[in-house]
């Protein structure tokens, strides 16, 4: 008998190559794909995802990109602006997701592209 699922918090981040709808969409799709594959998530297990972007990204909403994911019709999605801090990583998109996962599963927090330097301890999970 498998252990019942528990609610887990998942983090991740990436960078967009430019402040354009296409570049942001590409980065968000890659990040969500890594989150789903790395944690073996199905849409109905994902409860919510909050995206934050640095102030230099305003061409589109990451949540609008995420909303196109198959099985994510019931996922609560939210966008917000990352706190502006001098020297922050430019064109950065971060996420905080909540999902039901097996209690004994190791959580994978994907840090992709230039965002890998934010969490070098997670760089093996890109």
Summarize the structure in words:
Helix content is 19%, strand content 29%. The longest helix has 19 residues, at 21-39. Helix 2 (62-66) links the parallel strand 2 and strand 3 (76-81). With 126 residues, it is α+β, with helices and mostly antiparallel strands. The mean pLDDT is 92. The chain has one domain (5-125): 2-Layer Sandwich (60s Ribosomal Protein L30, Chain: A), CATH 3.30.1330.40. The chain has a four-stranded mixed β-sheet with strand order 1-4-2-3. It contains two helices and four strands; from the N terminus they run E-H-E-H-E-E.
Can you give keywords for this protein?
alpha+beta, 126 residues, four-stranded mixed β-sheet, 60s Ribosomal Protein L30, Chain: A
CATH-defined fold name: 60s Ribosomal Protein L30, Chain: A
Q: Count every helix, treating DSSP H or I runs of 4 or more residues as helices.
A: 2
| Residues in β-strands, percent | 25-35%
Query: How many strands in all?
Result: 4
- Report the top-level CATH class: Alpha Beta
Structural class: alpha+beta
Unreliable parts = none
Quickly count the domains.
1
CATH architecture: 2-Layer Sandwich
